[in-house]
Amino acid sequence: MRSIGARLVSLKTLPIVASMQILLAVLPYLIGLGLIGVVITLLTGLTTLGSGEGGTDGMDKRRRSNRLMMLRVGLQAGTVALVLLYVALMRWGS
Q1: What is the chain's Cα-based Rg?
Q2: CA distance readout (Å), 67 to 5, 34, 35, 62
């Protein structure tokens, strides 16, 4: 009887294990995309900030730079969360 119960438990956890394996396979790519997004927004913000302020256009550049900074911070937070999730799943799986 005990072996049947153990089999039922292992069959119930099978979808969880399969979905974890899929998640562990996909997470590095998502982390890479997040890092690329952070670098792109950082470089775009730096070029916007470094292009100089001229006349009425200066306030628009400041706003654009501020929006890019907020986007970059959000992307960084999301990427860090994905890295933490990946590390937690790797530890839990081993």
Answers
A1: 22
A2: 56, 17, 18, 9
The answer to whether the CB of 27 falls within 8 A of the CB of 87 is no
Q: How do the residues of the chain divide into helix, strand and coil, expressed in percent and rounded to 5?
A: 90, 0, 10
pTM: 0.74
Q: pLDDT band for 94, please (50, 70, 90 cuts).
A: low
DSSP letter at 51 equals T
DSSP code at position 56:
T
* Closest residue by Cα to residue 83 from 21, 91, 94, 16: 91
